[in-house]
Amino acid sequence: MSDPAPRLEIRNITRAYEGRRVVDDLSLGVMPGQVTCLLGPSGCGKSTTLRIIAGVEMPDSGEVRADGQTLCGPGIHVPPEERSIGMMFQDFALFPHLTVAGNVAFGLTGSPAPEREARVRELLDKVGMTHHAAAYPHQLSGGEQQRVALARALAPRPSVMLMDEPFSGLDNRLRDEIRDETLAVLKDEGAAVLLVTHDPAEAMRMADEIALMRAGRIVQRGAPYNLYNAPVDKEAAAFFSDINVITGRVRGALTDTPFGQFLTPGVPDGTVVDIVIRPQHLKIDFDRGGKGPNPTPSDGVPARGVVERARFLGNESLVEFRMDYGDEKLTAAVPSVFLPRPGTPLWLTMRRDRCFVFPRQTPPVRGGGNAGAEVAGGHSGGSSDPRG
């Protein structure tokens, strides 16, 4: 039995402005009922990709297909209004002169009146806006306007839904609630959803699959869990959370660090590597004996540092250290209130199973030096220390 075809398929899309490729040979497929997130920093090409799919911008090359139909490609361009694609924007773009019901019904002008009215009632009920059907957009809160915008976009039953930073205009108090409600409605409708955001927390919360973009290309794609726990490079790891980086040089498949030796099999001798660990995976001890505020088992050799600053953020404490070795700075997160005074000496150990080791592209050189761009691909750091 053959696998089902993607409802939305992008094949080798390229778009350049003044000689600079904003979208660079990008390919992606989204299945029915799937939420895929294009995640990346401003200027990486994600919104341009969305405009190309919607038909408001033409690619220089490549194809866009929906439900097996070619929407754009060599010699083909289906106008935006003839594509079965819904759009949601961050500013909601509601018609101020129409009521809530009128906004939702706007895309159903070709339908018989009874069908149109039934669809409007169905969607207003789904988004919890039935009692506001006669209200105008200016009478609604931001969260209510977002619900109406969702209902209007879904009214014509699009096979594909495109969402461009749709929650960025909401305050933090409402954002999580509206995201969850929107996701439930989208799943119920069964459209293929492509969501654009620069917020990794939003992508992790909503997406079945994340496509991480950088400089017009998808650098990593997969389930949120996989992107977080197996980042393709140091930049990918840093996009999802704060990171600490310790630099070392490989000798005989081992890299010496103040936290002991790390296994780096297959990496040529002399290669500079970055060992990456998130603050929550650095463990604090009061002494070398392993007693501290977060006693989850750690491994490796303890390294001593002096507290520079400690802050309580509500659900965790962040403690910044200046380490004894090389005057480096590291930050550890503690899931409780832990506010040691500046100048307090403490010991840190690293969770080896939570470290990532990424070789750099710099050619092997003698002595110091750690400049260079990271290559794609890394692995969890192991330990040759008997305690690790």
Question: Main attributes?
Answer:
alpha+beta, 8 helices, six-stranded mixed β-sheet, 388 residues, OB fold (Dihydrolipoamide Acetyltransferase, E2P), seven-stranded antiparallel β-sheet, single chain, 35% strand
Number of strands: 23
CATH fold name of the domain at 235-383:
OB fold (Dihydrolipoamide Acetyltransferase, E2P)
Structural class: alpha+beta
Q: Which descriptor suits the 3D outline?
A: globular
- Give the mean pLDDT: 87
Instruction: Describe the main β-sheet briefly.
Output: 7 strands, antiparallel
The helix tally amounts to 8
How many whole angstroms does the radius of gyration measure? 25 Å
What portion of residues is helical? Answer: 10-25%
CATH architecture classification of the domain at 235-383: Beta Barrel
Give unreliable regions as ranges: 362-379, 382-388
Strand content: 25-35%
CATH superfamily of the domain at 235-383: Nucleic acid-binding proteins
* End-to-end C-alpha gap: 47 Å
Could you explain the architecture of this structure?
By secondary structure, the chain is an alpha+beta fold. The protein has a domain at 235-383: OB fold (Dihydrolipoamide Acetyltransferase, E2P), CATH 2.40.50. Helices cover 21% and strands 35% of the residues. The chain is built from 8 helices and 23 strands. It has helices at residues 46-54, 100-105, 113-126, 142-154, 172-189, 200-206, 224-229, 234-240, and strands spanning 8-17, 20-30, 35-39, 61-66, 69-73, 76-77, 85-89, 160-164, 192-197, 209-214, 217-222, 244-251, 254-257, 260-263, 272-277, 282-285, 299-312, 317-323, 329-334, 345-350, 356-359, 379-380, 382-383. The strands form 4 sheets. Strands 22-21-15-12-13-14-23 form a 7-stranded antiparallel beta sheet, with no helix packed on it. It has a 6-stranded mixed beta sheet with strand order 7-8-9-3-10-11, sandwiched between helices. Helix 3 packs across helix 4 and helix 4 runs parallel beside helix 5. The longest helix is centred in the middle third of the chain and has 18 residues, at 172-189. It starts with 7 loop residues before the first strand and ends in a 5-residue tail after the last strand. The model is unreliable at 362-379 and 382-388 (pLDDT under 50).
